[in-house]
């Protein structure tokens, strides 16, 4: 049975109105860029009201048509997927936050943490993997999408995929201390654990609740900038996890760019619609694409999705 939001979105005039509003938001963002072209300047804009307003208006637009997502939810990956991810990650090279933060290319906002010594401390406690976009990541995203569509309630874009090892008995700092991520509006995170969730291997804490006693493949999705959360290092063994960031949108999108170890989210909302804009080479055609969006496989997954 269709819910209220699905019924509303199936109306062509509603989608037409939504895409017109989306175009206005993307146009405002484009105007913002005309005065700031350098990466460093766009990063400065991220702390300003104008950029925050673009993300906020986009999120309000999505929520208007699709309702709000669940605050927090859990699911499990198949055993085959866990085996595949573990074998793949064991062959991936590792890197450091200090090294990766110097690489500021790509569509992601990857700021250097300003507090003195924080990058060094991160590298003392965590070992990040250097990941390029590949079929294994796309396969993981596909399985995640099929598990979370209902909880997210709207279409969404995959933004960044990171993986790291948390050393046992590491310090309570950075992601290992209670915090909110402080992302601009519209984002959520999905944590995938490849080691058991236990005191010995490490687990997760969110809003006063310890998430533990789960097998490898356990995943938790949550509003990372609204809910207080913390990784918990193991007392005996390293904890291995993958973190996937998504943004709620009007159109599903894959992650077609490489991930960034220090990446938070896109610098620009328009990046979430870039594949469509590129394909059509014209923003007007994006509107046309969204209006015609009825029978694609990705859209079909949302036909099953709930709203608020
Ligand atoms: Fe966090």
Mind explaining what this structure looks like?
This protein is α+β, with helices and mostly antiparallel strands and 308 residues long. It has helices at 4-9, 12-35, 39-46, 49-66, 79-90, 97-100, 118-125, 135-152, 274-280, 283-291, 297-303, and strands at residues 72-76, 126-128, 156-166, 187-193, 202-206, 209-211, 218-222, 229-233, 239-248. The protein has one domain: Sandwich (Jelly Rolls). The protein has eleven helices and nine strands. A six-stranded antiparallel β-sheet has the order 1-7-4-9-3-2. Strands 6-5-8 form a three-stranded antiparallel β-sheet, with no helix packed on it. Helix 2 packs antiparallel against helix 4 (49-66) and helix 2 packs antiparallel against helix 10. The longest helix has 24 residues, at 12-35. The chain is globular, with a radius of gyration of 19 Å.
């Amino acid at each position: 049975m269709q819910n209220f939001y699905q019924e509303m979105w199936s109306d062509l005039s509603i989608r037409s109105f939504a895409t017109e509003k989306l175009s206005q938001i993307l146009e405002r963002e484009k105007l913002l860029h005309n005065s700031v072209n350098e990466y460093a300047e766009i990063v400065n804009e991220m702390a300003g009201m104008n950029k925050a307003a673009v993300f906020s208006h986009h999120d309000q637009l999505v929520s208007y048509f699709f309702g709000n997502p669940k605050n927090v939810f859990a699911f499990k990956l198949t055993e085959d997927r866990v085996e595949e991810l573990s074998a793949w990650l064991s062959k991936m090279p590792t890197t450091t936050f200090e090294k990766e933060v110097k690489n500021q290319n790509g569509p992601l906002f990857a700021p250097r943490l300003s507090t003195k010594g924080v990058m060094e401390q991160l590298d003392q406690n965590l070992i990040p993997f250097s990941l390029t976009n590949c079929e294994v990541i796309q396969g993981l995203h596909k399985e995640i999408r099929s598990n979370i569509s209902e909880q997210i309630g709207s279409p969404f874009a995959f933004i960044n995929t990171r993986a790291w090892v948390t050393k046992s008995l590491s310090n309570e700092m950075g992601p290992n201390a209670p915090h909110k991520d402080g992302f601009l509006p519209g984002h959520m995170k999905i944590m995938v654990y490849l080691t058991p969730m236990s005191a010995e291997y490490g687990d997760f804490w969110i809003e006063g609740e310890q998430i533990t006693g789960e097998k490898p493949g356990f995943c938790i999705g949550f509003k990372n900038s609204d809910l207080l959360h913390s990784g918990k290092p193991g007392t005996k063994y390293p904890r291995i996890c993958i973190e996937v960031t998504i943004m709620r949108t009007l159109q599903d999108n894959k992650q077609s760019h490489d991930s960034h170890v220090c990446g938070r989210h896109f610098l620009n909302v328009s990046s979430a619609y870039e594949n469509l804009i590129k394909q059509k080479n014209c923003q007007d055609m994006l509107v046309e694409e969204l209006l015609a969006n009825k029978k694609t496989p990705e859209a079909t997954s949302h036909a099953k999705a709930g709203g608020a």
